[in-house]
Design a protein that fits this description.
Blueprint (H helix, E strand, L loop, with lengths): L5 H14 L4 E17 L2 E19 L2 E7 L4 H17 L23 H4 L3 H17 L2 E18 L4 E17 L5 E8 L7 H14 L9 E7 L1 H12 L4 H5 L25 E3 L22 E5 L2 E2 L6 H7 L9 E4 L6 H6 L3 E15 L4 E14 L2 E5 L2 E6 L1 H4 L3 E4 L3 E3 L7 E4 L2 E12 L3
Parallel strand pairs: 7-12, 11-18
Antiparallel strand pairs: 1-2, 1-4, 2-3, 4-5, 5-6, 7-19, 8-9, 8-11, 9-10, 12-13, 13-14, 13-15, 15-19, 16-19, 17-18
Helix pairs in contact: 4-5
C-alpha cells in the first residue's frame, strides 16, 4: 500500500466532497501497513504483512444521515460511494441528537511518525521472536509472543472546510514464558511509537525471569494486603475508570461521577492528592492524532484529575450543546504522574506486600462504584522486609480503582502501556496500594 501524503489525500477528499449533493458531507480516509510475527512453543507459527486503505463518507440531509465505505479510489468508485451514502440518508429516520458538521479547525501537528519504525522488515520481526525463543530454550522454558508494527495515516475533511492529515507509527509486543511443567509463568508487554525505544531482549528477559522465579508458588490466605501493582496490572484497572469520565453518563446517573439527586461531581476531590492525570496529544512518549475523528474537533492538552480533584469531563457535541458548555475533542491518551523509583526500589521499601505482574479476565460488578473483579496471573510474589521471599498462588480480587487511588502509599516511574495510534494509549506508574482486597485463591499460573 502506498502511504498517502497530505497532498494526495486532499485531492481524494476534494473529489468526494465535490460529488456530494447533500446538505453536508464528511470524509475519513484510513490507511495502514501492519506487519506481525507470532510464535508459540518456542517456534514461529505465523508472520505476515497486511496493507489496507479505506474511505468512509458520511452525508446528511437535514437530520437524516447515511454512511458508506469503500477501498477503491477511482472517480467512478468514489462517486458510487457518495451516492450510496446519500441513498441511505434519504431513507433514514431523523436523528434527534444530530449535530451539524463543525466548521474549519486548526490542528497542531503531533509527531507520531518515526522513520525507523516505518522501515521495519521481516528480518527485524524475526530477530524479535528469535531473542525470546533462544533465551527460552536456554532456560528450559516455553515461550509465546506477538510482535506488531504499524505504519499508517488518517485524513479527515468536511464540506465546511475541515481538513487534517496525520501520519503515525507504532510497535507493540507481548511475551509469555512458562516452565516446561507449567508450574511457573512470566509475562511482559511493551509499546512505543519509535522502535528505537523498544528493546526485544530486555522485554523477553523480564518474562523469562518472572517465569523462573514463579515456580512452586505458595498459598496465602485471601484478605486485604499492601500490593505493588506493575504498570500493566494497574492499566487494566485504571483504564476502566478513564472510560467513565463522560459527562453525559455522569449527568444521567450512570457512573461513579454521578451526584446523588442529579448532576456530576466535577470539582470534587475524590482521590489521594498524589493523583494527577491529564491528556496530551503532543506528549513525546505517546503522541496521538490531534483531532477526535467522530466530532472532528481538535484535541487539547487537558487536566483531568489534579491533586485528587476532578477538573474536567468529556462532552460530546450534542451533550455540550444541551448543557450549554464548550465541547472539545475526545482524548486519545491518558498520562498519570508518578515518582522516580523503579519497581525494585519500591519493593525494597516494602515491609510486607504482594507484587502483581498482571491482572486479567476483569469484569465490572457495579458501575456506580466502579467495583471490578478479576484475577492475577503470570507472576505474583510475596515481599517481606524489602525482598521478594517467594512466589504465591494467584488471587481473585474485588476492588475499585476509585478505592485504589484513595489508598496510595507510593507511585513509581511511569511506563507506556498498551494501545497504539488507533487505540487508547496510557502512561501509568507502578503503584503501592494498601488494603487491596483479595477474595479467593486461583490455582492457575
Amino acid at each position: 500500500m502506498k502511504q498517502l501524503n497530505q497532498e494526495e489525500a486532499k485531492r481524494i477528499c476534494d473529489r468526494v466532497l465535490g460529488f456530494s449533493k447533500a446538505d453536508e458531507c464528511r470524509v475519513v480516509i484510513n490507511g495502514a501497513r501492519t506487519g506481525n510475527i507470532r510464535y508459540a512453543q518456542n517456534s514461529v507459527s505465523t508472520a505476515g504483512l497486511n496493507e489496507n486503505m479505506q474511505l468512509t463518507v458520511s452525508v446528511a440531509f437535514g437530520k437524516r444521515q447515511g454512511t458508506a465505505s469503500i477501498n477503491e479510489f477511482d472517480d467512478k468508485s468514489l462517486e458510487k460511494a457518495v451516492r450510496r451514502a446519500e441513498d441511505v440518508a434519504r431513507l433514514a429516520p431523523e436523528n434527534p441528537e444530530f449535530m451539524a458538521a463543525v466548521g474549519k479547525q486548526q490542528y497542531k501537528d503531533s509527531n507520531a511518525f518515526a522513520r525507523e519504525t516505518a522501515a521495519i522488515d521481516p528480518d527485524f520481526r524475526a530477530d524479535v521472536a528469535s531473542h525470546s525463543i533462544l533465551a527460552g530454550r536456554k532456560n528450559k522454558l516455553v515461550t509465546a509472543g506477538f510482535f506488531v508494527d504499524n505504519t499508517g495515516f488518517e485524513t479527515i475533511a468536511n464540506s465546511n472546510g475541515v481538513f487534517g492529515h496525520h501520519e503515525y507509527t507504532n510497535v507493540s509486543f507481548t511475551c509469555t514464558a512458562r516452565t516446561e511443567d507449567g508450574r511457573g509463568s512470566g509475562w511482559v508487554t511493551r509499546s512505543a511509537n519509535d522502535v528505537r525505544n523498544f528493546d526485544a531482549r530486555e522485554a523477553s528477559n523480564v518474562a523469562i525471569e518472572k517465569a523462573l522465579r514463579s515456580v512452586d508458588a505458595k498459598a496465602l490466605e485471601p484478605g486485604r494486603y499492601t500490593v505493588i501493582l506493575e504498570p500493566a496490572a494497574t492499566s487494566e484497572l485504571i483504564g476502566r475508570m478513564f472510560g467513565a469520565f463522560d459527562a453525559r453518563r455522569a449527568d444521567e446517573g450512570r457512573s461513579f461521577l454521578s451526584k446523588k439527586g442529579g448532576g456530576n461531581r466535577l470539582g470534587e476531590k475524590l482521590f489521594d492528592e498524589q493523583v494527577n492525570i491529564w491528556a496530551d496529544p503532543w506528549d513525546k512518549d505517546v503522541p496521538v492524532r490531534p483531532w477526535d475523528t467522530v466530532s472532528m474537533l481538535p484535541r487539547e492538552r487537558t487536566d483531568i484529575i489534579r491533586n485528587g480533584k476532578i477538573v474536567s469531563l468529556d462532552y460530546s457535541l450534542f451533550w455540550a450543546s444541551k448543557q450549554k458548555v464548550r465541547a472539545s475533542g475526545r482524548h486519545g491518551n491518558m498520562i498519570m504522574a508518578g515518582g522516580t523509583k523503579s519497581l525494585d526500589e519500591m519493593i525494597a521499601s516494602t515491609k510486607k506486600g504482594i507484587v502483581v505482574t498482571r491482572t486479567w479476565y476483569i469484569r465490572e460488578v457495579d458501575p456506580q462504584s466502579l467495583l471490578l473483579t478479576g484475577l492475577t496471573r503470570d507472576g505474583t510474589f510475596y515481599v517481606e522486609n524489602g525482598k521478594i521471599k517467594h512466589p504465591v498462588k494467584n488471587f481473585r480480587f474485588n476492588e475499585s480503582p476509585v478505592s485504589m487511588l484513595n489508598n496510595l502509599d507510593e507511585l513509581g516511574k511511569p511506563q507506556i502501556i498498551g494501545g497504539d495510534e488507533v487505540n487508547f494509549q496510557m502512561v501509568i506508574p507502578p503503584m503501592k496500594i494498601r488494603d487491596f482486597n483479595f477474595t479467593s485463591l486461583s490455582d492457575a499460573v
